[in-house]
Amino acid sequence: MRREHYFKDALLTMREGRQLNLTVPTDPHYLSHSGPIRFSRPAPSAGMRKQPEKNIVAQRGRANHIADNREMGFQGSIEKNSLLIFQVTHDVVDFREEYPRIDYKSADGKERFHVFDHWLLLGDGRRLVASAKPVSLIMRTGLKDTLSEIEPFVCPKFADEIMIRTEFQATDEAADTASRILRNRRTRVEEHVREVREMTASFHGAFLFGDLAAAGKIEADYAEAIWALIDLGHLRPALTACIPTTSLSGLNSLSTTAIPKNRM
To answer: Measured between alpha carbons, how far is 177 from 237 in angstroms, rounded to an integer?
Structure first.
């Protein structure tokens, strides 16, 4: 943690009236997992568009699909954030990046192609294709008109619906929550999850993340359990911002990382 972030967290903790526990344990505490953690080289990306090696406008790189251990290329923060969010959205059972490629003849008679940023399969069987772009680019390039033009070539062959995702859906805060949940799925301990679930069964209203975590013998163990219960939908953050220990949580609500309802 950066020093200024530590100071901020400490001040927020004191403002909430909680005591700081800076005791250093005499014995080391090792994180125990519910199952073994294995590492292997990820498979190559299945995308149909190769990301450029250099781009002075947008960030680009590769993320990892945790479920099937393959690389996923992205170009721009909206694509990167979406790749994280999709992996923790329970309605999404499968997705691909940079797929499909649509070859079509435009209104001016020229042969053109368009590669969608994401293809998703939902639990109810619906297929979605998505373009993840900033609002400024959508307005400048006329992306909506392009998508309307190629819709007959997309639906129903590749998808049932076309979707646009912007920086207002694939936010940095939602991606931060998603990345924490992805880590938690590999590190959670079911015994701690059960203990915290039983503890919160009689709770009503909102309570502080840090207060609940501090109830455990080892605070980090209960903090991981809280993240697991957020993933399972038992706990809900009161805010959609990044979740520090001073944030409020509520009970028995849906996850905040569901796919937004906005479409084209």
So the answer is: 10
